[in-house]
Design a protein that fits this description.
By secondary structure, the chain is mainly α. It is 76% helix and 0% strand. The protein is globular and about 55 Å long. The N and C termini lie close together (6 Å).
């Protein structure tokens, strides 16, 4: 348990440092944008490539992936049902809220948590692939239909091919599946560049917290509270129930799958909301609320299962 708390303390310190940097503005007004793009297009792909290429294939395609899928689906569909059937929300807003309820930050927060808390960053990789190759295309298809009235097949098919994280992850998985070991002089530069991903993404996220006001007047407070509750309470609970009594995962894997389910909502959800100009405040507030409140939830999960 002590190691888990130390891991959270390390993550929290770097996020706090990022918040101070953002508040003081010492890196300039575009620093968060530059760091975010560097992490997305360069650092994280290099990290995921090295992690996946050296990962155990049995972990990548194990029951952890199935449990994560079930937990996310239950949480997301719960919001969708309530928002549409009871609150009569428009389809686009309901889809954004559904994503916010089950689409975890397996990259920016998941990789550091997997590294410092679970001891293996590869735990987050299957969830990244699941979300980018399954959840995102489905959601974008629905949003495309609502926005344009037609389905953009080209966008659906080419979307994954233009995402550097997906491309790097797939290449890494292929190396792992075919047991290809790159020579040390070849893989070491990838490790060196990828090693900068964790501190940079945490600094960038800390900077993004400056100036945010969640649950402001005029926002969809009820939707934010529901999505946040489903994300931080229902999703990890489902992961524990499915992973434990149903799949009988060993303790380390059960801890991993519940911790991943308790991660905050991914910033990708806000990006999708911005792109279609639907549910932007909802997505922004859920990302912020779940990011702040996930810390005690993750500590509780670690205390009970570690």
């Amino acid at each position: 348990m002590g190691g888990v708390l130390v891991g959270f303390a390390i993550i929290g310190f770097v996020i706090l440092a990022g918040y101070i940097v953002g508040r003081t503005g010492i890196l300039g007004e575009h620093a968060q944008f530059v760091l975010g793009r560097a992490a997305f297009y360069v650092l994280s792909p290099f990290l995921l490539f090295t992690v996946l290429s050296e990962a155990d294939v049995h972990v990548l395609f194990s029951s952890l992936l199935v449990v994560s899928l079930i937990a996310a689906a239950v949480s997301g569909l719960a919001f969708l049902g309530i928002a549409r059937a009871l609150w009569k929300r428009p389809v686009s807003e309901a889809v954004i809220g559904s994503l916010a309820s089950g689409y975890v930050n397996a990259n920016n927060i998941g990789i550091p948590v997997a590294l410092y808390v679970l001891g293996d960053p590869a735990y987050s990789a299957p969830v990244v692939l699941l979300q980018l190759l399954v959840f995102a295309p489905i959601a974008l298809t629905i949003l495309d239909v609502q926005d344009r009235g037609t389905v953009s097949i080209r966008r659906i098919l080419l979307g994954p091919l233009t995402n550097p994280i997906i491309v790097a992850s797939v290449l890494g998985v292929l190396l792992a599946v075919f047991a290809v070991k790159l020579p040390e002089p070849v893989i070491e530069p990838f490790r060196l560049i990828g090693g900068a991903a964790v501190p940079v993404v945490l600094l960038a996220f800390g900077m993004s917290l400056h100036g945010q006001r969640p649950l402001a007047p005029g926002s969809s407070r009820r939707d934010v509270i529901l999505a946040s509750a489903l994300k931080l309470a229902l999703m990890p609970l489902v992961a524990w129930l499915v992973g434990g009594p149903l799949f009988h995962l060993p303790p380390p894997q059960l801890l991993a799958v519940v911790v991943l389910a308790a991660l905050p909502t991914a910033q990708n959800v806000f990006n999708y909301a911005q792109r279609y100009e639907r549910g932007e405040i909802l997505a922004r507030d859920v990302v912020l609320v779940t990011t702040v409140l996930c810390v005690p939830v993750l500590v509780l999960v670690a205390a009970l299962l570690a």
